[in-house]
Amino acid sequence: MSRTMPTIRNVVFDIGNVFVRWDSLAIVSAAFGLAGEEARARRHALFVESDLWRALNRGEMTEAEAQQAYVDAGLLDPAEAERMFAEVYASLHLLPDTPPLMERLADSGYRLFALTDNVTEVVHYLSKTHAWWSNFEGVTVSADVGCLKPDPRIYRHVLETNGLLAEETVFFDDVDKNVKGATKMGMHAFVFTDAAQAEIDLRSLGVELK
């Protein structure tokens, strides 16, 4: 029995490590001049062990409030906090192969959306910096929804807010657990490694690109 090919109408992209680089270890290394185990330990303290970065991504504080919270928690002094957040922006290097794929999808008639665990101020910066951002018909940001992937609520939000059917939607994210979260909601989903592989994945679902 032949398998029926799904009808894909919508493509939802993560942002970090899909359109722009996100590397918290590199941020720590550049901000504090650290390398090796020292850099990994500092990254763990600032981004992994502490909930402050996740709270910022959940929209529970502004970027300025988060900087002060890091200082109040004794994790950074004021100058270090300023350097770290400056380096967050400096580190957001464009991944140049993804926007052309996005343009081809748009030209082929597919609806495009973003779903990102992200900071309000960073999203504002990216939306004003990159012309490709305007191709997104809708953007779901963790800081607006108040939860992070793979919480089912954030996938439900992108589907319901934009009137999308899960079975007609494919999602790309660089983190496997986030991909699995999308599939649990009935979406098609792939781990994003690069634009070339994403095109292969899209074609496997019957997506036709100009």
Query: Order of strands across the widest beta sheet?
Result: 3-2-1-4-5
Q: Determine the number of helices (DSSP H or I, runs of at least 4 residues).
A: 11
Tell me the Rg in angstroms: 18 Å
What's the helical proportion of residues?
40-55%
Shape call:
elongated
**Share in β-strands:** 5-15%
Main sheet?
Answer: 5 strands, parallel
> Low-confidence segments, ≥5 residues, pLDDT <50?
none
**Would you list the SSEs in sequence order as H and E?**
EHHHHHHEHEHHEHEH
N-to-C span = 30 Å
Q: Report mean pLDDT, rounded to a whole number.
A: 97
Give the structural class.
alpha/beta
Strand tally is: 5
Give a verbal description of the structure.
The model has no long low-confidence stretch (mean pLDDT 97). With 210 residues, the chain is an alpha/beta fold. It has helices spanning 24-32, 36-48, 52-57, 63-72, 78-90, 98-107, 120-129, 142-145, 152-162, 176-184, 195-204, and strands at 10-13, 111-116, 138-141, 169-173, 188-191. Helices cover 50% and strands 11% of the residues. The protein is elongated and about 55 Å long. It starts with 9 loop residues before the first strand and ends in a 6-residue tail after the last helix.
